[in-house]
Specification:
5-stranded mixed β-barrel; 23% helix; globular; 6-stranded antiparallel β-sheet; 30 strands; alpha/beta
Amino acid sequence: MKSVVPVILCGGSGSRLWPMSRQLLPKQFLPLVTERSLLQDTALRLRGLKECGAAVVVANDEHRFLAAEQLREVGAAPRALLLEPVGRNTAPAIAAAALLVAENEPDAILLVLPSDHLIADRAAFHREARRAFALAAKGYLVTFGIAPAQPATGYGYIEAGKPIRGVRGAFAIKRFVEKPSRARAKAFLARGGFLWNSGMFAFGARAFLEELTRLHPAIAAGARRALEGAARDLDFLRLAKKPFAACPAAPVDTAVMERTRLGAVVRSRMQWSDVGSWTALWDAGRKDRAQNVARGDVWLHDARRCYVRADGRHVSVLGAENLVVVETDDAVLVAARERAQEVKEIVARLDRLRRTEHVSHSRVYRPWGYYESVDAGPRFQVKRLMVKPGQALSLQRHRKRAEHWVVVSGRARVTRGLDTLYLDPDQSTYIPIGTRHRLENPGKIPLFIVEVQSGSYLGEDDIERFEDRYHRG
């Protein structure tokens, strides 16, 4: 068997899972089903699949530290962490990963996995993956087709063609069908031979690149130039922005899989979901006798077939049916469960109104830790900062605001102008407007401080950095 390199695609915004999923913390980084994030579950799912080596992870530049930290937490060191400067859909991302692997292992098989899927049975996933590897070793470009459990309208479908000899449950691909109406989906299930398109693939790196070059040469050429111009940055490999941005934005399905003569599908009965909406989480969740799914501090009375999630406060639901209720610290969603796919329209409206509830939570993660908003008003803002042991904010200054720091717990090393001082709990310092400053945690426990900002402008873009260990601009 040829070597297998997993490629984990870590882009995407997950707008249908607002208000939990936000631009700065999309669904793949959230613990929506288990106590781990979807990305972490994806990485751990590969354990025991002995054919696989370390993964190539393709992430958005903005999420690079989140991806690296979450993988570190579960001991899943990647072969490479490839950074997309802009999102161009899956075909350019997979092409860049294939080119990177092919530099040293042109005959390797790629196992392409989205980072935000739910697969309940790891053993079943391993069985289906090994069947896909066997097909890929014969030169096929393989996708995983899920036997449909219901006439779902949120998935694309694949019609299976003639069986492929030598691999059980393998078929040539007859055609792809975009997300159908419910009536058409019911007809597919009645006719048989149709599978949900999972968005997971297995193919040889060289075979995929040859087909991509033949079918969509602009993507292949752009990804090649982006990799040739890539630059190392800490533990990341940054693709060159200009050639990658010039790649046509296209999913791998339409760029290659729908047009190739080498397409094959493995029929799978594993429990799978792309976690594409709150309804999908209701489908996947553990239900009570009234078919409710509840997470967090939730009380349900005379409620039926509801999905209710409380992220920070208590939520009670009385006498309701078929609702989605999701509470976060700064937003609450209440929706009819059958209309959960339309949540993205709320996100679009928030964006048009230039609001921020779709961009970030009150807690915003940074490579050094996080900050969260506590209070704000005219000319002032209060934040709570956590700095991880051994980490530091950039050496910076602000043109329009002053800051007052109070240490709550831990020990802080503060650079203030030409002075360096150490602060213990209940001690504080003042940073005047225009003063260079830096906050560091020299200790072995997290540092918590309260920061009070005051001034004419308090936006995050009022930061002029002079030194930064994370190479931010």
